[in-house]
Q: What sequence folds into this?
């Protein structure tokens, strides 16, 4: 009995291996031909690929965060100064101990601020069309290689991918683990949704400040914190600063649909897709590319703060001591027009006899592979950045007679230019309510040009509005 069982088991094992080998053998025998597609006309008769771009790139920026230190990270001199300062401001011994244990947050120094609008996100859509679909010929796009290459490398450079979406998956690179390499590979079965974004948070407190080890810190009633308005940034862009890194999925993949690979460097982005049985790669591929401009220009701008009390009322009279004016620079692109070239290769799997139409594994198909041989013949140039597309939005204060608002700061006249609508309207509302014609000793002017600007008078103020330019 045992002998018969052993023999039966051996025969079953042998026959199953033979069946597997038979399937494998048939899969190689089923390749009837490989047809090379040399000309653009031949290629277009099988697969056509086009590129469409969003009308305007969106700007994004990163704001540096404040530096946090503990007392033990200070030098001996700094520790002594911190303890002396805390002891002079906190009478209660218990609160003193609590104060010494808290993190010291550095307050931004009064150095010139810098508003940099040179990084952008551009949305592109690659339209892949199976031209044999709907005809009597049956098949699918099995492999697809797409390259996007900047035609002029002196104007902009790529930083990374932000988001890639196909009909099979949406991949947000902010949710994928990063390892150092020069490409990314995303296996099948991904169902990650969402888009990368940044958010800025601003905190503000009014408190006493002390300089310790070159850092201005706040020590007041046992609480340490930011003493003036500062900014911090939270980003889930992920791959935006991950030029040339491998993207690897952090969870198990159980269901294979397609394989998506790619790489990006300063001047070109490459995407590779590999299909699976019964999965055609005719699709719209949406991509968000992060890029940075190379040719930029900077201009001098002023920032006004301390205009309002915590309850939203304007500061007047003695409270004007809280008024502060700071200077900085706005950096924007000198961009004109840039183009990008799309080129591609593919392998098309055409079924010759259609025997395996109902076979998920496609084992019984007799196929002809249609393959591109010359990627240069597919190269097409598209407009990537239009003239004026990267122009930074700014807001100015202007009246109906084309007079702008100026300020005479340290002997030089500057047109008031704001980088946000909120800042511009806040300043104008302060002007309406106070009727002041100077700001903490800085004289306000009006004129069509700075060379002919004259002192502002209260009767001029109601005529001004905020204009986006």
A:
């Amino acid at each position: 009995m045992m002998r018969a069982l052993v023999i039966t088991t051996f025969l079953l094992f042998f026959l199953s291996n033979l069946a597997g080998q038979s399937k494998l053998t048939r899969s190689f025998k089923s390749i009837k031909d490989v047809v090379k597609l040399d000309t653009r006309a031949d290629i277009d008769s099988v697969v056509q690929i086009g590129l469409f771009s969003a009308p305007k790139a969106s700007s994004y920026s990163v704001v540096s965060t404040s530096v946090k230190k503990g007392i033990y990270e200070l030098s001996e001199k700094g520790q002594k100064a911190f303890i002396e300062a805390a002891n002079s401001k906190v009478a209660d011994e218990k609160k003193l101990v609590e104060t010494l244990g808290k993190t010291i947050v550095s307050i931004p120094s009064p150095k010139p601020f810098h508003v940099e609008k040179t990084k952008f996100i551009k949305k592109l859509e690659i339209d892949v069309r199976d031209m044999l679909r709907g005809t009597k010929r049956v098949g699918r796009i099995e492999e697809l290689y797409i390259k996007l290459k900047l035609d002029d490398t002196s104007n902009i450079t790529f930083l990374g991918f932000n988001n890639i979406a196909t009909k099979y998956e949406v991949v947000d690179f902010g949710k994928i683990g990063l390892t150092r390499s020069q490409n990314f590979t995303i296996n099948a079965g991904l169902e990650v949704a969402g888009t990368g974004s940044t958010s800025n948070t601003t905190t503000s407190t009014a408190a006493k400040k002390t300089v310790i080890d070159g850092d201005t810190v706040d020590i007041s009633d046992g609480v340490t914190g930011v003493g003036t308005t500062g900014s911090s940034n939270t980003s889930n862009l992920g791959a935006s600063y991950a030029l040339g890194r491998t993207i690897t999925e952090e969870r198990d993949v159980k269901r294979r649909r397609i394989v998506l690979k790619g790489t990006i460097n300063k001047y070109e982005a490459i995407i590779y897709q590999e299909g699976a049985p019964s999965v055609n790669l005719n699709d719209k591929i949406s991509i968000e590319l992060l890029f940075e401009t190379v040719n930029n220009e900077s201009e001098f701008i002023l920032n006004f703060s301390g205009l309002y009390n915590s309850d939203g009322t304007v500061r007047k009279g003695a409270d004007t001591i809280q008024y502060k004016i700071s200077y900085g620079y706005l950096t924007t692109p000198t961009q004109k027009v840039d183009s990008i070239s799309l080129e591609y290769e593919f392998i098309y799997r055409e079924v010759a006899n259609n025997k395996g139409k109902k076979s998920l594994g496609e084992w019984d198909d007799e196929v002809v592979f249609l393959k591109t041989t010359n990627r240069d013949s597919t190269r097409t140039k598209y407009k990537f950045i239009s003239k004026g597309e990267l122009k930074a939005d700014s807001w100015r204060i202007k009246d109906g007679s084309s007079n702008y608002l100026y300020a005479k700061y340290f002997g030089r006249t500057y047109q008031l230019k704001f980088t946000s609508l909120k800042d511009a309207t806040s300043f104008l509302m302060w002007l309406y309510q106070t009727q002041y014609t100077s700001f903490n000793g800085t004289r306000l002017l009006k004129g069509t040009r700075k060379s002919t600007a004259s002192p502002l008078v209260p009767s001029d103020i109601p005529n001004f509005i905020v204009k986006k330019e």
Remarks:
- The radius of gyration is 32 Å.
- The helical segments are 2-29, 40-44, 76-89, 93-101, 421-434.
- Residues 176 and 249 are 6 Å apart (CA to CA).
- DSSP finds five helices and 34 strands in the chain.
